[in-house]
Amino acid sequence: MGMPDGEQRPEEQRLGPVIRRREQVQPGTTDQRLLDTEGDSEWVHTDPWRVMRIQSEFVEGFGALAELPSAISVFGSARTPQDSPEYEAATRIGGALVDAGFAVITGGGPGAMEAANKGARAADGVSVGLGIELPFEQGLNAHVDIGVNFRYFFVRKTMFVKYAQGFVVLPGGLGTLDELFEALTLVQTRKVTRFPIVLFGTEYWGGLVDWLRNTVVAQGKASEKDLLLFHVTDDVDEAVALVTKETGHDG
């Protein structure tokens, strides 16, 4: 946008905190440039704009979750069938966590996540779902009372950790493993204050635990004490008791 007909370019221009003089004076105003709809739209795909979107996701997440009561993040597979023992266990875990005084946070999807949200909702607790933009996901399940959808995995994972006092990890796939090892690494490196991590399902997790002990620790890639960063159980009551004991939460 140029200068109006007959107007001379000013010698000095104030643009917020910036002063431009002489040849550096820009035509038009900041509002004009903002409201001008013409021009290239590629700027919405640039890294500076992505930084703003990332910042906005943190702001929205913090704003939505800041007033949550004490909460536990429950992870598990989106592919867990509704008629499976794992789904039933996840539902019981969601309800038992609410009975112990916790809100329940999941990834908001189907399967084990849906089951934990269902159990929390049935127990009249706070049921939270933190979704992620994926090409094959169906959105947040119907049992989520507070839901936030994220574009970026790392922002979402920050919310899982920041607003939870512990993790319960049900059988799951690569996403569940990612969340599990993220939590273990944060606790091991003392990037976060230690919080309980409970693996539910001894048969499912047994091979992983054996590999950690007999390969990772045995070859000096981790310490024996790192195996104390998590608990493994098949019992819903024990899982909730471990979380309650380690958090010092009295319900």
Give structural notes.
The chain has 251 residues and is α/β, with parallel strands linked by helices. Helices cover 41% and strands 15% of the residues. The chain contains eight helices and nine strands. The strands form two sheets. A seven-stranded parallel beta sheet has the order 6-5-4-3-7-8-9, with helices on both faces. α6 (174-188) links the parallel β7 and β8 (197-200). α3 runs parallel beside α4 (112-122). The longest helix has 19 residues, at 47-65. It starts with 11 loop residues before the first strand and ends with a helix.
Feature tags:
251 residues, alpha/beta, seven-stranded parallel sheet, two-stranded antiparallel sheet, 8 helices, 15% strand
Largest sheet: 7 strands, parallel
Q: Mean of the pLDDT scores?
A: 88
Strand content: 15-25%
Distance separating the two termini: 63 Å
| C-alpha Rg (nearest Å) | 25 Å
- The percent of residues in helical segments reads 40-55%
* Widest sheet, order of strands: 6-5-4-3-7-8-9
